[in-house]
Amino acid sequence: MDRFTPQTIFISILLLLSILYFITFLRKWLKSQSLTPPSPPSLPIIGHLHLLTDMPHHTFTKLAQKLGPIIYLQLGQVPTVIVSSPRLAGLILKTHDHVFSNRPQLVSAQYLSFNCSDVTFSPYGPYWRQARKICVTELLSSKRVNSFQLIRDEEVSRLLTTLSAHPGSEVNVSELFLSLANDILCRVAFGRRFTERVGSSNHLAAVLRETQELFAGMSVGDFFPEWEWFHSVSGYKRRLMKNLNELRRVCDEVIKEHLQRGETGIKEDFVDVLLRVQKQDNLEVPITDDNLKALVLDMFVAGTDTSAATLEWTMTELAKQPEIMKQAQEEVRAVARRTGKVIDETHLQHLHFIKSIIKEAMRLHPTVPLLVPRESMDECIIDGYKIPPKTRLLINTYAIGRDPSSWDNPLQFNPNRFQDSNIDLKDQDFRFLPFGGGRRGCPGYTFGLATVEIALARLLFHFDWELPYGIHTDDVDVDEIFGLASRKRTPLILVPTVNEGQTKSIPGGISMSGQPRFSHGSTEPMENMSICSPPIPHLLPTLRQIVVKHYRILALRGQPIADCNDDHITKLGNPSIKHIVPCTVIASAVPL
Question: What CATH number has the domain spanning 108-535?
Fold first, then answer.
């Protein structure tokens, strides 16, 4: 009997072809896996969503320490790549910038940016190029930023006037910085303060706060684009639509006011500029009213939290290291004495150490620890790994700023690392990316930086700052809360005292009432300032005299100061002063 019948031969050939096909498929699969960036184990359906925490940049940093500077995560239905090194950031932002210039269409942006027609979230294309050009040349040019100097001066002066009216009190400076940034941006964008009322209620402020909260959050649709129905069921879509309608109504009111006002000789705000540009005949893409609203809101939303957070983190680090704060105060006060003028923006070019302090705060505490997401438009090879089209990409500036291969003692706050350094705030050095880089880098960083620099310089010039009684430098926490900008989880509480010796030495620095004169403009106090413990002004001169007696003053509830023996009093701290008790109530006096 013949062992090789046609049937056996056919089966053998079929089996051989199947084996060859399987081997080929396996080799291709293994090759494709080798081209995918390292990835931790995932779960069905949700992928790696279970790994996300309320501090995603911390999670990504830990994963990068285990898997390397480029990792792949499947976040629901969205393939995502995270890079955490300066070298890879340079490949994304410079070498392959054209591939990664698109933005993913996030749910909140589709609604609140009027169908993604702002600069931040607009898809890459002719409209985005035109919108960015308008921002760079019309809204945020050096000339335009300088034209808003008076607004910055007046709003910082209001802050200083308020602080000087409450010397020795514990103050929530986190709230003050946010109010300062909101008021400056609102005046620049809309022509009115954030705290000014619209109609019978503070409507503009309420609507913009809600907008910021919605932009800061993430929705199911950002990870499962096919689950659009979930937004209706959860009520998220209803909340977005309500805020969108309120935004449209408020913006319509503002635009109507500007149109009725016409050319009155008042300096142009952003709405004025965009209304003028809207009428131009040489626009590649016509600007609709909704486009105008999206652009002006973009300036506000992108600028307020980031400026406030930068000030907050900078003052937090200075409070933790008083010797660095003292060095900064000596610099700004020496510059003021040398020029004989109250600190203004013309002095900033001489404040090199203060500029280094701000840079170091942004390195250690980036306000946008994960740069605004990008999306690949074509297939690209990054560091040997294949990145398919429609892949979401995140750059972890938090990890980059703390990379020990780039920075000596990266967890230490050391402004001197930026002294005589060629590391600037642009995207030329990818170790330091506070404002992103490439085509989609922040076009308004000079505006935000101008606010931060003048506010910090004047706060350090006019005031000495202390922590509340009983709080030591090691007690000041640096825990974060992730949102539109990375803020301090607990508010920063400090105690300011007017440095009268410095302000009196500068002509124009003291008013007839003895209070610092901070500006020639409006100096009415800021509204709703958070004073944690109001001072008792009439006690302060007496308390200063008692300190000269070589004893600390004890500030406790008890008998009035008239019942005390000046030689037997102990001080616990001005912030909690209510009444003074005799030292006999305490174990012993504490000599200075």
Answer: 1.10.630.10
